[in-house]
Specification:
By secondary structure, this protein is an alpha+beta fold. Helix content is 43%, strand content 13%. A hairpin with a 5-residue loop joins strand 2 and strand 3.
Length: 254
């Protein structure tokens, strides 16, 4: 049995199941340490429009005053405006359609990845076991991987669809990232520069943490680690932000 599991032809499936276990452990440790690994990865993916997700109205504070010495004014883009302007090519592209088919946006991406790796690994071993039983030999790894990949995709979709129906609402909503516009956040890792985003943490109304990639909205400005900011617009997979000068407006849970 051990020889079968560790056979060279089965290496992709052993790696897949090993990676699945490693991800599960990393997510568990991250949760204990307060690091939202799943939310962080979700923030890197393009927005997937789902018809059954309600997008709440965004309350935006008044920023009539000047920012950064009075030289610049920043009009915060509302979520509705972003949606009208941009239901963009991203949401219509093939990549977004694939993400939607796999239920990314309804179920956290790490859970979907774990499901896929599990399905791929198990399907590969089952296929190789059947072939070995019938013929006495194993398929080449690349051939068996192609078959396992084809089986893992529908397995992932069906499993994710089932999970999306039973997961708590505040988790499966996964808060459309367009609703982050106008919300306060805090730079928690790195210094954000134009073209070089840093990681920011934002807490939604349900108290869940979301990790975003943020860069300054002002050319030449640097948002240091620990700086409180206001998200002003979404640009693809990351956001731009300005300094939060309103001491009564916080959204980091601290």
């Amino acid at each position: 049995m051990i020889e079968f599991i560790l056979a060279d032809q089965n290496a992709p499936f052993a790696v897949s199941l090993g990676l699945m276990i490693a991800i599960a452990v990393a997510e568990g440790v991250g949760s204990l340490m307060g690091l939202g690994l799943s939310s962080m990865i979700d923030s890197l993916l393009p927005e997937v429009d789902l018809p059954d997700v309600d997008v709440p109205d965004v309350e935006v504070p008044d920023f009539d005053g000047d920012v950064s010495g009075g030289a610049l004014h920043h009009d915060i883009e509302f979520a509705g405006a972003s949606a009208d302007a941009g239901t963009s090519a991203t949401g219509q592209g093939v990549f977004s359609q694939i993400l939607g088919w796999l239920c990314i946006g309804r179920v956290p991406v790490l859970i979907i990845l774990v499901i896929f790796l599990t399905g791929f690994g198990l399907a590969g071993y089952v296929l190789q076991s059947l072939v070995q039983t019938i013929s006495g030999w194993l398929l080449p790894g690349i051939v068996a991987s192609a078959g396992a990949f084809a089986a893992a995709l529908p397995f992932t979709r069906v499993s994710a669809l089932g999970l999306s129906k039973v997961m708590p609402r505040d988790e499966s909503d996964a808060v459309s990232r367009r609703t982050f516009v106008g919300k306060p956040a805090r730079i928690v890792q790195g210094n954000a520069k134009k073209g070089l985003p840093a990681q920011a943490r934002l807490r939604d109304q349900a108290g869940q943490s979301h990790y975003l990639l943020v860069e300054p909205d002002v050319d030449g400005e640097v948002l240091e680690q620990g700086t409180d900011v206001i998200i002003v617009r979404q640009q693809g997979a990351h956001f731009t932000a300005i300094r939060n000068t309103n001491t009564t407006l916080t959204g980091t849970g601290e």
